[in-house]
Amino acid sequence: MRIGLEIHVALPTRSKLFCSCRTDASEPNTAICPTCTGMPGSKPTLNRNALAISVSIANALKCRVPESTSFARKVYFYPDLPKNFQITQKDEPVGAAGEITIESGKRIGIRRVQLEEDPAKVIRQDDYTLIDFNRSGVPLVEIVTEPEIGNEEELRMFITELKSILYYLGIDIDRELKVDLNISVSGSRVEVKNVTGMKNLLDAARYEVQRQEKLVKAKQGVVQETRSYVEKDMKTAPSREKESDEEYGFIFDPDLASYKTTGIRIAKPVYASKIAKEYSKRYGVKDSALRELIMFNSGNLALIDSAKDRHGMKALITAVELLQRYASKKADPSVFERVVEIVEKGAYPDKEMMLRIEAGKSVEVHAGASDEEIDNEIKRLIGENSKLLKELGKNPKAFNFVVGAVIKKYKSNPRAVSERLERILKELE
Ligand SMILES: [Zn+2]
Question: CA–CA separation, 79 vs 37, rounded Å?
Fold first, then answer.
């Protein structure tokens, strides 16, 4: 099975790609001008900030960034584009031949990254159509992958990784994620157009893969076609759209010059999942705990980095988790430092204690139970109840019951208790 993606991401610029209209207007048709409504004689002027962001994305996705980049007109006839063409990139996109390494270690190729304008929004009513030009000209980056995603799990990993890389560049893809999926189970390529949001993307892929697998199994063959995702039925259905990229007319855009990419300030990429992997290896902690804390939270990463040379990584992770759970405001480094010190003394503060620490008040720290005490308590609970022991390996409720009972007695760190219990169960196997 092969899945390829075309992902459209809106860039966080204040103004549109080729004019100075705002990008955040909500009242329809209030942020428009002759350029973004495609009036005759109007001329586009490139938003340099959008260019810089798109080059930063291409760089973070390890693409080859050309020395100069240019624009093309993609010609088509549709009410969302009264000038009859969309300004996009064809021969000289801002990036090509990149890759993303996903959680499993597999590399997924990035074919190209291109900068383009969003068309207007078309709203269909019973017997008429409304058009909102606020969206017309909003800068988009289109990221095209190679068809190298092998299953649903890899698709989830790919989007998570991309989302994290873009998050660290200041781009939130949840705000407006629009994806075209190419899915081929047997060799015939089916395109599922305009899927919006992460959940729909995974649902659409799952449905389409199963649909094609059923056809192949029944020896009916898969028709090469364009489909769309019907959210309310959680299904894909044939769509009437016929055009493929080969059928569009492209011409060089004479209104826009060629732009040098040298000299553009490129934002330094942060690969949080790679950092999580490195730290987990170096400090002997769980990769998943770190990933959860830092992939979409630069504040947590900064806290850990600021203290990692003075404290143990386990205590840092616990302290960040405690702040996330209980803090009423953004943690400052001095509060963090105090929480880490308390955790390193073996204590596990509850909500009340955390609020006192946050308020700068004094707290009484009792050292938590030792590993031996925790082990003894676990063994005592298991020894009292032979049925419980049988349930522990397979029933999460039984596992949580034991962890909960130990926490209640000693006010211990849940993660530490879980680890002791896992270890004891392994020994008993
Ligand atoms: Zn405008």
Answer: 11
